[in-house]
Specification:
Blueprint lengths: L7 E4 L2 E12 L5 E2 L3 H10 L7 E11 L2 E5 L13 H7 L9 E3 L5 H4 L15 E5 H8 L1 H6 L2 H16 L4 E4 L2 E4 L2 E5 L8 E7 L2 E5 L7 H4 L6 E2 L5 H17 L3 E3 L8 E7 L2 E6 L4
Parallel strand pairs: 5-6, 6-7, 7-8, 12-14
Antiparallel strand pairs: 1-2, 2-4, 3-13, 4-5, 9-10, 10-11, 11-12, 14-15, 15-16
Amino acid sequence: MSAIPFPSQQAGDFTVTAISDGYLTASLDLLSNIDPAEASRMQNAAGQKEPAAVHINCYLVRGAGRTILIDGGAGGIKQWGGRLMSNLSLAGVVPADIDTILLTHAHPDHVGGLVDAAGQIIFPNAELVAHQRELAFWQDDGNLSRASERARGNFLIARQVFDGYRDTLRTFQQGEVLPGIRAMPLPGHTDGHAGYLFESLDQSLLVWGDIVHFPHIQIERPDVSIAFDQDPSLAAATRSRLLDLVSAEKLLIAGMHLGELGFARIKRSSESYGLEYETEA
């Protein structure tokens, strides 16, 4: 395999590559339990030139005879992202190569890139794998009727994706979703939000989905939630629990809203956590 022009890490038999879909913009006013001025200060202190910019990662996984995509980015919806397809091409992958799409959850910046502007599926040979509770939430008409106008659009996008891939859709509750890949339910951000733990040849890597949107703020301050969270208090509790776990186990993590380096470890000192990007496989 030739060199891939994107950050990659090895997890046993699997090569996991961070594929950027680009950026979205989210006001720091959307954060709770922190003053926006303090949030801006933390972003600036971390060297974030555009404090309101949120990066969108997808992850390409190759190995064990499979070509897997974890999340599909925003696909240009709401002028968010849209770089996934060109970056997959740079990584030597065409849509027909993808045999499995593992979904962390069905927000627009994670599923928008799975269908085209006409609503047709982009990955014709892919099985779509999602938590059963995630599918149930977005397909519930009661949830749709109670949604705000902004959120109503999210329902329509999620339903379009689930409908498009209905012939290959597979749901899970927990446990192994593919050999060497175990689903980890991480509720709070959405009802069926899930991460994926790779365990192969004594190497582990956790793709943790949307545990954070602003990593330099929410890792240091896990109590800070964002308006996108369906259950902010549960999201904060899940984040604290997971930060404790991955720092104690020195587990390599990947996240959809980490920076373009894509992979990191969480370091704990006294009572606070810090983010250290991993730059070499």
